[in-house]
Amino acid sequence: MLVHRSKIEKRVFVFALQTLRNQLGRHVYPVHRLDRPTSGILLFSLSLQAAADLCEQFEKRTVRKIYEAVVRGHIMEGGTRDEPLREKHDRKSDKRARHCKESQQAITGFEPLKHWTIPLSAGKYEHSRYSLVRIEPKTGRKHQIRRHFNHMSHPVIGDSTYGDRRHNRLFREQLGIVRLLLHARHLHITHPVTGNALSIEAGYGTEFEAAVQKLNEHDVE
């Protein structure tokens, strides 16, 4: 789903915002967005005041966002990717945006959670290697996680823009997995009314869970 209506996809008629409004029978306000193919936690508020408070938390970087992803190759140690990124624009929706801005600070923390080696070939090697990675972006640049991991030569599986087509094809044709394997797993915020710390967690969902299960089944290590 797209979060809300967009000039990018004029032929799309189902949106997370409108769907949630219909389910609750009242207005809701989006606080942040996820890339369309990314699954997991998407935060809305029930009032404009709460939305303003939560948006301020995101702007001040007091919100902790934890993602998990399946990426190509074995990442053996955790670390931090501190690499400025130039702002990405969409041809349709960002026609009037400035395209000469300097690169912006982008910081992504990560640590490996699991490794797989499976006896399926995506190219010249008989086996293919993958990692499940816990990711904590410290900044919120467009496509930051996907771009950083691509630059690290560990692209996210299923990423049609920055990923590896050979490995995407392996997952699609041999494992039956067609989606981006990037999931917003945890969100830590301050409740806008009570002021209490609030931790939110979202399970993988059917397709991400199926991908992990199939990798476990094929793993030869």
Descriptive notes:
Strands 2, 4, 5, 6, 7, 8 and 9 form a seven-stranded mixed sheet that branches. This protein has a two-stranded antiparallel sheet with strand order 1-3. The model has no long low-confidence stretch (mean pLDDT about 90). It is α+β, with helices and mostly antiparallel strands and about 220 residues long. About 25% of the residues lie in helices and about 25% in strands. The radius of gyration is 18 Å and the shape is globular.
Short recap of the structure:
With 221 residues, the protein is of the alpha+beta class. The chain has helices at residues 16-24, 48-59, 144-151, 165-174, 206-218, and strands at 29-30, 39-40, 44-45, 64-72, 79-82, 107-118, 128-137, 182-190, 197-201. The protein contains five helices and nine strands.
Could you describe the largest sheet, including whether it forms a barrel?
Answer: 7 strands, mixed
Principal-axis shape: globular
Query: Count of DSSP E strands?
Result: 9
SS field, number of helical segments: 5
Residue windows where pLDDT falls under 50 for at least 5 positions: none
Mean pLDDT: 91
SSE series: HEEEHEEEEHHEEH
Helix fraction, binned, reads 10-25%
Structural class: alpha+beta
End-to-end separation: 36 Å
Question: How many whole angstroms does the radius of gyration measure?
Answer: 18 Å
Estimate the strand proportion.
Answer: 15-25%
